[in-house]
Design a protein that fits this description.
The protein is an alpha+beta fold and 219 residues long. Helix content is 54%, strand content 11%. The chain has 9 helices and 4 strands. It has a 4-stranded mixed sheet with strand order 1-2-3-4. It starts with a helix and ends with a strand. The model has no long low-confidence stretch (mean pLDDT 95).
Length: 219
């Protein structure tokens, strides 16, 4: 089986991750580099491991997490679809079994809001892992006076955690927000669609999605 470490050590994959993040930097988007993709991979793995899925599915979720943003190298628009095609070619060349390729490609192709759906557990874990990565360190713009709403909201998040409760009935995104930079209302303004997607992904895993901001449960 092709493992997460095999993909993580693949020179081509790493080159594409670097270049797609450079492209997003050029158009003013938040960080989508190695910190983000590793966090997405490890969080997706944590979700499936906690919920008792097989080691094979956990590895595939981590691979999907690591590769999910490759399509940004083509264009931000439809990056989930172009990224899925890129992942197919890379994994096929690495001689990953077709069944496993199909799972990874499906997850990548369905991770973006608007077009994506949690069609299998790996896709659901990737959605939750990707959409929960909101944090101050993703903001590249250092001039606070030039922040747009995305910069303000991400910069306002001092701490974020995604955890599954001991009973394995709830998955909880907990955010600590400094409201002098971005309000809770602004968070919902730009992330409502993502939060709805997280709720659907949680349901796929037989979990209830909850959002807690500054100690107050909002979803």
């Amino acid at each position: 089986m092709i493992t997460y470490n095999d993909v993580k050590n693949n020179d081509a994959v790493n080159a594409y991750i670097r270049k797609q993040d450079e492209y997003l930097s050029a158009i003013g988007f938040t960080e989508h580099g190695f910190v983000h993709v590793i966090r997405a991979a490890e969080t997706a793995g944590y979700i499936l491991k906690t919920m008792g899925y097989s080691n094979e599915e956990i590895e595939l979720a981590k691979i999907a997490g690591y590769m999910h943003d490759l399509g940004n190298i083509v264009n931000r628009t439809n990056h989930s679809l172009t990224g899925a095609v890129m992942a197919f070619r890379i994994l096929d060349k690495m001689e990953m079994p077709p069944e496993d390729i199909a799972t990874v490609v499906t997850a990548i192709g369905n991770h973006d809001e608007g077009t994506g759906l949690p069609v299998n557990p790996v896709a659901a874990a990737l959605i939750l892992a990707d959409k929960s990565d909101v944090r101050r360190s993703r903001v590249r713009n250092k001039a606070k006076t030039e922040f747009d709403i995305h910069d303000r909201v991400n910069y306002s998040v001092e701490k974020s955690t995604l955890t599954i409760n001991d009973e394995k009935t709830e998955i909880i995104l907990t955010l600590q927000i400094d409201t002098q930079y971005g309000s809770i209302m602004e968070y919902f303004e730009i992330f409502m669609e993502r939060m709805i997607m997280c709720r659907k992904a949680a349901e796929k895993l037989k979990l209830e999605f909850k959002l807690i901001i500054n100690g107050q449960q909002l979803i």
